[in-house]
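Readers of this paper often ask what the protein records in our data store actually look like. This encoding replaces a full spatial description with a residue-level series of whole-number codes. For reference, a complete record is included directly beneath this paragraph.
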Amino acid sequence: MDAVSRAQERAMAAESAVVRRYVRRHGPVAWAHAATPGVPGARTWHYWWHAHLLHVLRDAQQHRPDPRRARLLRELHRGITLRTLGRWTTPFYDDVAWMTLALQRYDLHDRRIDRLTRRLDEAVDPAVGALPWAVDSALYNAPANGPAAIALAWTARRGSAVDLDAWVAATLDDPATGLVRDGVEHGMVRPELWTYNQGVAIGSALALAEGAPDADARDAHEARAASLVQAIVRWCEPDGGLFPAAGGGDGGLFAGILARYLAEAAVWFATDAAREEHRNVSRAAGDLVRRNAEALWHGRRDGLLPADPRRPARAEGEDLDLSVQLGGWITLEAEVAVLTS
């Protein structure tokens, strides 16, 4: 079996396990439970996790087209519409940004996209130059501004995307490591380094490079994405290229988000075969994705992927969270994207 077929089989197995364990259907509507039965709060409905479920199912549909998956996507879309009373929004701007990205991946013509991007754009605080984490929040962070910049870059509000991306670089980039710190609250930088913040910074740089008005702007955005990939390589090198784990709950998605945007970088920089530095960035990004996908698959037990790629999966605790299984599945789909580019 070649590498592409093997990666496709792994991603398909992760998808099947998630759908079987977590997704519930009622007529033309579908939704996902937060954990497997028997876990406290298992039946909770998570807005943010559903955004990533919709997003990764669309990735899978691109990699392995299937009418049954297309039907499930429509059912989940209806489920989100019902759960949010048709608004598709929450008071948390980071969640709104992630859902906007999922909708853009699902259907760029969805009428909700303009309403959500307008909400994000209008929420930018002009005194700060960034988007708060939530309504009335004093926290301005990468998990809100990174995905918002990606979402806005694909719309007529591109100027706001440029400003948000620049704010993250100027305010949150760590000069010592080249990585993106978490956020700013009451004028103080929160220094935590999370995998998904690096991912969305790469994603926003590439989204802006794609529609850059001239070669200089494109080169600048590409250079930022490349420097982030190199910083992540240095960050993960002491642990064999494995991403730092963030446990269960929301943290279960963090590494998968990084893998998704590293895969984008691997594909993007591979297209410029004439520049050796771009080929090197592509190889580095793709290697990180493959190493983590391989480690997650090696740790798979009874259809579960581990929250930490350094150990086997366990049929208890954080590994039972939907977020953890989604994060692993996103990484396996990212490997497919790298190998099929």
Observations:
- Residues 22 and 302 are 15 Å apart (CA to CA).
- The domain at 3-340 is CATH 1.50.10.20 (Glycosyltransferase).
